[in-house]
Design brief:
By secondary structure, this protein is an alpha+beta fold. It has eight helices and 21 strands. Among the domains are: about 140 residues, 2-Layer Sandwich (Gyrase A, domain 2); about 80 residues, Elongation Factor Tu (Ef-tu), domain 3 (Beta Barrel), CATH 2.40.30. The strands form five sheets. The protein has a six-stranded mixed β-sheet with strand order 10-11-12-9-3-13, sandwiched between helices. A six-stranded antiparallel β-barrel has the order 14-17-16-15-18-19. Strands 5-6-7-4-8 form a five-stranded antiparallel β-sheet, covered by helices on one side.
Length: about 375
C-alpha cells in the first residue's frame, strides 16, 4: 500500500477486523470486511458501523458566517434553526457542482460544513478564496473522527450508551455535546444509507473507544463494521448521488435532479444566474434511475441507448442486494425521463434492456423499484 495514503484514527481497528484496505480519495480505507452483500444486508436488517473519518469538516465562524455560506451554496441556509442540518450543492459561477455538502448550524453565528473526502482540499481553497474579513474558516478535519451507526436497530443500540433522549432528535437535526460511552460527541440524525441512524462527530482521540463501545453495545444485534463497498450499494439503492460520478463541475444540480436544493428565490449566490438561465431555457439532459433485466452491471461511463442509438451515459451502477436486480443512475434526454420508459445499456457490446425507474429504488422498510 502507498505509504503516502492517509489513515483514519480507526486504521488499526480495520486491520484487526480483517478488512480489505484500498486507496480511496487519498486515504487507506476498508472496502469490505466479511463481504459487501453480507454487510449491506446487515445495515438493511439490523445495523452497521461505518468509519467515515476521511470526510472533511470546516468551521465557518464570525458575524458574517451565515450570509457568507448563504451566498456560497444553492440551498437556503438562512432558514436553518440552531441544531438543524441541511444538504446542499456548492457551485461554480457556471452552475457546475464543486461538491455536495452538509451544513450544520451550530450556533446563531457559526456553521460546520461537511465535505467529501476527495474534494476537501479544493473545497477549503474555494471557500477561503471567497470568504470576507468578517468570516473565519478553520479546517477541523484532522481533529474530528466521524462514525456512522446505520440501520433499523441503530437508535436502540446507541441509546444504551447515552442518557440523552435520542428519540427527540429529528431527521436532519443534531445535538452537540452529547455524552456517548463517556465521550463528548455531536450526534446527528443523518446518514448515507437510506436507513435510520446517526452520525457521530467526535474527537479523533476518542474514535477507537467509541468504535469498541458501539460494537459491544450492539453485540446482541450482531452489529458489524461496514466498508466502502456496501456504503456504495446502500446509497445507490436509496437514490443518493455520489460526487465525481453522478455530478461534478460539468453537471448542474438541475441536471442531477436536485432542483429541490436550488432556492433561486433566496437571493444571489454563486451559480444562481447560470441556473436561472438553464431553468428558463430547459435542460438537455437529466439524471434518472433505471433497472436492467438480468444481473449484468451497468458501470460508470457505459452508453445508455434508446432504439439502438446512444442517448446518454451511466453514472453509477450496481447489483442491488435488496432488490436482487441490476440498478443504476444515468443521464438521458428530457423526453426519456418518465418512469417505465424503455432503455438499454451497452454492456461490453451487448444491449441489455431495462426501464427508467422512479427514485429511490429502496425506501426504508419497502422496496420501491418494480
Amino acid at each position: 500500500m502507498d505509504e503516502t495514503l492517509k489513515r483514519t484514527p480507526l486504521y488499526q481497528k480495520h486491520v484487526a477486523a480483517g478488512a480489505r484496505l484500498v486507496p480511496f480519495a487519498g486515504w487507506e480505507m476498508p472496502v469490505q470486511y466479511a463481504g459487501i452483500i453480507e454487510e449491506h444486508r446487515a445495515v438493511r436488517t439490523r445495523a452497521g458501523l461505518f468509519d467515515v473519518s476521511h470526510m472533511g469538516e470546516a468551521e465557518i465562524a464570525g458575524p458574517g458566517a451565515i450570509g457568507f455560506v448563504q451566498r456560497l451554496v444553492t440551498n437556503d441556509v438562512a432558514r436553518l434553526a440552531v441544531t438543524q442540518a441541511l444538504y446542499t450543492p456548492m457551485c461554480t459561477p457556471d452552475g457546475g457542482v464543486i461538491d455536495d455538502l452538509l451544513v450544520y448550524r451550530v450556533s446563531e453565528t457559526d456553521l460546520m460544513l461537511v465535505l467529501n473526502a476527495s474534494n476537501t482540499d479544493e473545497d477549503l481553497a474555494w471557500i477561503r478564496d471567497h470568504a470576507g474579513p468578517d468570516v473565519r474558516v478553520t479546517d477541523r478535519s484532522a481533529e474530528i473522527a466521524l462514525l456512522a451507526l446505520q440501520g433499523p436497530r441503530a437508535p436502540e443500540i446507541l441509546q444504551r450508551l447515552t442518557a440523552a433522549p435520542l428519540g427527540e432528535i429529528r431527521y436532519y437535526w443534531f445535538r452537540p455535546d452529547v455524552q456517548v460511552a463517556g465521550r463528548t460527541v455531536l450526534v446527528s440524525r443523518t446518514g448515507y444509507t437510506g436507513e435510520d441512524g446517526f452520525e457521530l462527530y467526535a474527537r479523533a482521540a476518542d474514535a477507537t473507544h467509541l468504535w469498541d463501545a458501539i460494537l459491544t453495545a450492539g453485540a446482541r444485534e450482531k452489529v458489524v463494521p461496514i466498508g466502502l463497498g456496501a456504503r456504495d450499494t446502500l446509497r445507490l439503492e436509496a437514490g443518493y448521488r455520489l460526487h465525481g460520478n453522478d455530478m461534478d463541475k460539468s453537471i448542474t444540480p438541475l441536471e442531477a435532479a436536485l432542483g429541490w436544493t436550488v432556492k433561486l428565490e433566496k437571493g444571489e449566490f454563486i451559480g444562481a444566474d447560470a441556473l436561472r438561465r438553464q431553468k428558463a431555457q430547459g435542460l438537455t439532459r437529466r439524471l434518472v434511475g433505471f433497472t436492467l433485466e438480468g444481473r449484468a452491471i451497468a458501470r460508470h461511463g457505459f452508453a445508455i441507448q434508446r432504439e439502438g442509438a446512444a442517448v446518454g451515459q451511466v453514472t453509477s451502477g450496481s447489483f442491488s442486494p435488496t432488490l436482487e436486480k441490476s440498478i443504476g443512475l444515468g443521464f438521458v434526454p428530457p423526453a426519456d425521463v418518465a418512469p417505465g420508459q424503455p432503455l438499454a445499456v451497452d454492456i461490453r457490446g451487448r444491449a441489455v434492456p431495462g426501464v427508467v425507474t422512479k427514485l429511490p429504488f429502496y425506501r426504508r422498510g419497502e422496496k420501491t423499484a418494480g
